[in-house]
Every structure is written in structure tokens, then in C-alpha cells.
Write the C-alpha cells for this entry.
Amino acid sequence: MRHLFSSLLAAVAIFTSCSGGKPEYHTITTPTGTWELVWDEEFDYEGLPDSTKWSYDTDGNEYGWGNNEAQFYTKGRKENAWVSDGVLTITARKENMEGKKYTSARLRTKGKGDWLYGRFEIRAQVPTGKGTWPAIWMLPTDWAYGGWPASGEIDIMENVGYDPDTIVGSAHTKLYNHVMGTQKNARVAYPDCHQTFHTYALEWEADEYRLYVDDNHYFTFKNEKTGYEAWPFDKPFHLLLNLAIGGNWGGFRGVDDTLFPHKYLIDYVRVYEKKD
């Protein structure tokens, strides 16, 4: 009996070791196939976001963000991005910095996590309040087809504070984008999205990509096979997490300054590769 018990413990240890200590999500199966974990961020530490996985996107501070957003994105500042209790918290604050009235953070995996196809799961709880604009999205790493929107953009999750119950997923390409009014997107109602965590997922393959909330499939963008103008999604992309304030969409009905600070909570980020 003791020998059997020891053998069982060894088997469990081997399984746990091979699966990174988290066998429950190392390999998952969805209605579209089986997926194997290739990259994850569980936020199981305390401090600034792990610099081997994340960098701060502050480039737009110099020339202005494309959506006329009102925040200044900081770098390496715990007041705006901090990990503790297993959660990454991105905080938007009402404070003056570099000519802006608000500060926040915009994190990206560029150069540290870049992928062509896969399943991307991000479990998050969004803030609420007029003027907030949290997002989970992807941009091309090399911009092979030219500047935005030619090289594409995948919006896994967007939410604006004046429409707090609605989650929006979108595709942006040269042919389909919001500047032209031709963007492809879908909306789904989750009235508690700012009260509890939900899992926002993208399954991206060569013929199409699909968006989900808690495994509820609500949007598909198909490859028309007519060229990069409609489908630039055949190049590596990276992930972004950010909390914007104001802007063309987020600030469409103004910003309520009485509600700050706003906290955007991310429980984990997991990236899977489809198994043949």
C-alpha cells in the first residue's frame, strides 16, 4: 500500500511539473478543438508587472494618441500598474502630469509575446463610470502591410463607461475600420462586467477569428481570401491591456471627475496553441 501511495504521489508530481503546476488549464478543449498552453501570466507575485513579459506603451504620449484620449500613460509607476493578491490592477487617476489631467497605464507584450494564431484568454473585471475606456486588444508587431489600419487591429474586449453593460469586439483592417464607418464588430450585454470577473477570449485561425465571453461565442470575422486589405491577420500580433480616459468614444458623453480613481483588474492572461 505504501509503495502504491508513493507511486501515485510521483505520478501526480510528474503531471504537475509537466503542466507548470497548473494541470487544470495546461491543455483545454473547446468546441473548435484542443489547445495547449504556450504562454501565461498568472500575476502570482507582488510588484510592478513582470518586465520579462510586459513593457509600457508610452509612445503616443509624445505625438498624441489617435483617439484624442485624455490620459498620460506612465512607465514603471506603481500608482498606475501594480500586481498584488494575484491580480494586476491598472489604475486611472485624476492628477496633472505632462499637460494631461489624468494618468493611467498601457501594457503590451511586444517583443516578449508575439503570436500568429492561437487562443487568447484574459480574465478581467472592468471599471465603470462616464469617461472610462478599458480594452483588451492586439496590434501587429512588424506592421508588414503599413500603418494603421492596413496591418490590422483585433479588439478582444472594449467597454465604455457611459454604456457600462455592453462588451464590444471588433476587427479593423484597411477595408473595414471605424474611420470609414465600415468596421466589423458585435456587442453583447454583460450587466455585471464591472462587478465580477469574466473571461474574454479570442480564437484566431487562418480562416477566421472568433470572440467569446465566458465561452459565449458572439462574433466571427472571416478571411475573405481577397488580400491583406480585408485580412491582414496572417502576421504576428501582440497583446495590449490599457485603461484610457475620454477620447472620441470613451469621452463621447464627457468624463465624470468625481468617480476617480478607476481600477481595471486582470486576473490572468493565457495563450494557447491549437494541437493538430
Observations:
- The longest strand covers residues 262-274.
- Residues 1-20 have pLDDT under 50 and may be disordered.
- The chain has four helices and 19 strands.
- The radius of gyration is 20 Å.
